[in-house]
Structure formats: C-alpha cells, structure tokens
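Batch job 17 of 40 flagged for manual review because the log was empty.
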Amino acid sequence: MKTKISVILTAWCRPQFLEEQVERVLDQSIHPHDVVLWYNSPPKKLGFLERKQLVSFKNDKYIKKIICDYNFGIIPRFSMASCMEGEYVCIFDDDTMPGERWFEHCLSYVDNKNVMCGTIGLRFLSSNELKTEKPRMGWEAMNTHLEYVDVVGHSWFLRREWARYFWDEEPLLRSFGEDIHFCAMLQRHGIGVVCPPHPAHDKSLWGSVKPERGVDKVAISCSSDKSKEFWQVVRHEIERGYKPILL
C-alpha cells in the first residue's frame, strides 16, 4: 500500500517563498497524498501584489487552500493535522525548504523509534534560565546521527493520530511556544522528539536546504521580545511534568 503523507503549509509574511516551497514539497521522493495551505491574512504593509502570491502561484492547482481574512496565528495548523487524510502529516513553517528526500528520511524513524521528526532541534541546559545547547541539532549542527532533543521546529513530521495529543491541555499561549507545548504533550504518551541526521555531504536529507530563511527579520523566534515568553512556556510545561533530556 502506498504511504499517504499529508502536508500542511502556512503563509503570512513570506509569500515570496511559497512557490518554491510548494515545488519542493511536490518533488519529494515520496509524493504527498495531499497538500493544504493555511493562509493567514498578511500584514497590510505587504500590499496587494504580495498578497496575491498567496492565492495564485505555480502548481497552485495541486494545493487545497484555506484563505482567512484574519490572522489566526500559529495554532490552527496543529489542529488541522487531525483532519488530514494521510497516515502521516508534515507541517511546515513558511521559511522551510525541504531536501527532496526529507519525507523518506523521516519515515525511516517515525515508526521504528516512535518519534516525531523535526528540522531543527533544541536541548535545554538549565531549569533556571533560558539556556540551550549550541549548535542546534539539524541543519545547524549537521549531526551525523539521529539526535533526541527537547523540542523541534521549522517542520514537524508525525503520525496523524498523534495530532490529537496537542489538546491534552490548553497551551499557555496562543501566539508563541506551540512547538514546546506539542513536544511536551507527546512526551506524556511516550513519543520522543528527534532531529534525523543532516549529513553535510547530502542535503537531499535535510529538513531545510536554505536555513538562512529561518533566522530572518520576520522570524518569530528571533524577535528580541520573545525570549521571555519562550522561557515562560518552557517553565510552564516543566511544572506540569515535561522533562528535558539533559536536566
């Protein structure tokens, strides 16, 4: 039986990358079963032409679109995962450009190891302050082995049935920290979180072959006013039983 992988894309501040991202998703060695684009209404400053890119682009006939005139933020994509048709779901940030074997790569670990795979991964080094291991696992460290981490971002590859665990509890925030919350909920069910190998010599296996886009000026995690909220979410989950690997 053919493996069914559903894909969820999001668009907001980076419409200029959407066409390339769609092409990379459709060119995977394991072709996706279906692709849904969650379109949050972009900031007015983008203007009409940039907004149009979100609804009309190369290969858009292969994409199912949910077009909103309001920015519902980052939570809907995780709620939508349970509604998809595939046995597996891969959710992408709008800055993430997967290598052509990313789905294939993740599939080799998800069931065998009972894990969710991600593009970039963090391990926390302190329970008293926001301190994380450097470099991050994934495209930054170019790890040669599978690495267990505390939280993954930029993309999330999982079994669809696991998506329901996101709502075991309400997340502390609706605007930030959804990745930390989801990983904490999965941990309760014995599901690990990993960064697959990102070998320097084979970018076809990478979760994103253009990582510089994940640290641009519109990246939420790079905003100077988000570190306090990030730590707030981590502490909230630890107090409720979340156990970072190194602590």
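Reviewer: the log was empty due to a logging misconfiguration, but the result itself is present. Strands lie at 5-11, 34-39, 64-67, 88-92, 115-122, 137-138, 147-148, 151-159, 192-195. Unflagging and moving on to job 18.
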